[in-house]
Design a protein that fits this description.
This protein is of the alpha/beta class. It has a single domain, classed as 3-Layer(aba) Sandwich (Rossmann fold), CATH 3.40.50. 31% of the residues lie in helices and 24% in strands. It has 11 helices and 12 strands. The strands form 2 sheets. Strands 6-7-8-3-9-10-12-11 form an 8-stranded mixed beta sheet, with helices on both faces. Strands 2-1-4-5 form a 4-stranded antiparallel beta sheet, covered by helices on one side. Helix 4 runs parallel beside helix 7 and helix 7 runs parallel beside helix 8. The radius of gyration is 20 Å and the shape is globular. Bound molecules: adenosine-5'-diphosphate (ADP) and magnesium ion (MG). Adenosine-5'-diphosphate (ADP) binds next to strand 1 and helix 1. Magnesium ion (MG) binds next to helix 1.
Length: 323
């Protein structure tokens, strides 16, 4: 059984001009212990998808209009308050881009981790356990650090504290939404190494949201690519990066800066992400697609099975077996 199964999920958000479709048939499966990357340009619906896994958006803001989200066999939209509380924290927890916003500025970091432990694992809510978590996420002198306030820590150290707080309840899934985007490159690499190490040690699954395909190649086992409120390609990360099946994935890959590449020689994807509710008919990517033919503006492609655990939402996509 998959840890998480998102099936044809459709979700509308409340905006000033009324309800607008943001997710339009998202399909996503997360397996236990697997690092799954979710990639795509900004605005494609990655964060909204992640928040919906534990129904973190209030009903006044988000309305499900189709499909379902099943976590450990349970439909999250039919969970009661107790079920949702267990889901948030004990099953799924989150690390966001800006640790400075998520941490409480007037509370010592040790106390913040202690509070999380008290809520989810009361038997482990001791200062010794807090210090063990600080060491585990690579923070030296844990006794000293535990007594510090967030502003006394660097951005990288703050993100390590966030990771400790997210993992202390021992969730089955850690959702890391652009966890390194706000950090400099060296620290980014350290945080990714830490996530990989913690996955090996603790065995949880990770949903890693990023717009950086370089990061995917470094750390992910599987990858799903989102475009305009849908998943357009999914498969083993190495296979997808080596031979992308969807033209959008290929375009994303071509836009990754390579070491030594001249800036003006970088290919970027022409056109822009369509804004909310302004999706094209037919294939959503066709206005920007180098391979588009006349039919692409009429037929809305399905997410097709390509074999070898790969899928793509393009009639011209070929899998790994083809030459
Ligand atoms: N609170 C909100 N109210 C209205 N629209 C929103 C809100 N949050 C996100 N959106 C819109 O939903 C779409 C998907 O957003 P998001 O999931 O944050 O994208 P991503 O994480 O892929 O960058 C975007 O077009 C965004 O503008
Ligand atoms: Mg986002």
């Amino acid at each position: 059984m998959s840890l998480v199964a998102v099936e044809h999920l459709k979700l509308d958000l409340a905006t000033e001009s009324g309800w607008v479709r943001v997710l339009d048939g998202v399909d996503l499966r997360l397996e236990p212990g697997v690092i799954h990357a979710l990639v795509g340009e900004s605005g494609s619906g990655k964060s909204i998808t992640a928040l919906t896994l534990s129904r973190l958006l209030p009903d006044s803001l988000a309305r499900r209009t189709g499909g379902r989200v099943v976590v450990e066999g349970q439909d999250v939209f039919s969970l009661d308050r107790t079920g949702l509380q267990r889901l948030r924290g004990s099953v799924i927890s989150y690390v966001f881009q800006e640790p400075a916003i998520a941490l409480n500025p007037v509370m010592r970091i040790g106390d913040q981790i202690l509070e999380t432990l008290a809520l989810h694992r009361p038997a482990e809510a001791t200062s010794a356990e807090v210090e063990r978590w600080l060491v585990r996420v690579g923070i030296p002198s844990p006794a000293v650090r535990a007594r510090q306030y967030p502003h006394e820590l660097s951005g990288g150290m703050q993100q390590r504290v966030m990771i400790a707080m997210a993992l202390a309840p021992r969730p089955r899934l850690l959702v890391a939404d652009e966890p390194t985007t706000a950090l400099d490159v060296t620290i980014q690499a350290q945080i990714l190494d830490l996530l990989r190490e913690l996955r090996r040690e603790l065995g949880m699954a990770i949903l890693l949201i990023t717009h950086n395909l370089g990061v995917v190649g470094e750390i992910a086992d599987e990858v799903s690519v989102m475009y305009a409120g849908q998943v357009v390609e999914n498969g083993p990360a190495s296979a997808v990066l080596r031979r992308p099946a969807h033209p959008y994935t290929a375009a994303l890959l071509a836009s990754v800066p390579r070491l030594g590449a001249r800036l003006d020689a970088l290919e970027s994807i022409p056109g822009t992400v369509p804004s909310l509710g302004a999706w094209s008919s037919g294939c959503r990517f066709h206005p920007r697609c180098p391979k588009a033919v006349a039919d692409c503006c009429r037929e809305h492609p399905i997410l097709r099975d390509l074999g070898h655990a790969r899928t793509a939402r393009c009639p011209f996509a070929v899998g790994d077996a083809a030459t």
